[in-house]
Amino acid sequence: MTTVKKIRDKLNSLAPESLDIIDESSKHAGHAGAKGGGHYAVTIVSRAFAGKDTMLRHRMVYGTLADMMHREIHALSIKAYTPDEI
C-alpha cells in the first residue's frame, strides 16, 4: 500500500467531503531529512472542523496520522476547511 493510500485511509476517519493528497517528495530528494519519510500536501474539507481554529484542525490531522509521522511522513502541509469555507 502506498503512503498516499495510507494517509487517505486514515483521514477518512474525519469524514472528508473532499480530500486531496499530493506527494511532493521528489521536490525534496537529497536533503538530509528526506530519508525519514516523504513530503506531502493535504487539502481536506470536513464538517469535523466546524467551530475549530486552524491549530486545532491541524492537530486533528496530525493526531490521525501520528503513527506515520517521522517514519513514512517527514513533512506535511495541511489546508483544512469546513464545507462552508470553500
Q: Can you tag this structure with a few keywords?
A:
single chain, 86 residues, alpha+beta, 3-stranded mixed beta sheet, 2 helices, 23% helix
Would you give an account of this structure?
- The chain is of the alpha+beta class and 86 residues long.
- 23% of the residues lie in helices and 30% in strands.
- The chain has two helices and three strands.
- The longest helix is centred in the last third of the chain and has 11 residues, at 54-64.
- The model has no long low-confidence stretch (mean pLDDT 92).
Strand order of the largest sheet: 1-2-3
Q: Specify the overall morphology.
A: elongated
Distance between the termini: 30 Å
Using the CA coordinates, give the radius of gyration.
Answer: 13 Å
Quote the average pLDDT: 92
What share of the residues does DSSP label as strand, in percent?
Answer: 25-35%
Spell the H/E element sequence: HEEHE
Which structural class fits the helix and strand makeup?
A: alpha+beta
Low-confidence stretches: none
- Which percent bin holds the helix content? 10-25%
- What would you call the quaternary organization? single chain
Please tally the helical runs, counting DSSP H or I stretches of 4 or more residues.
2
The profile of the biggest β sheet is: 3 strands, mixed
User: How many strands?
Assistant: 3
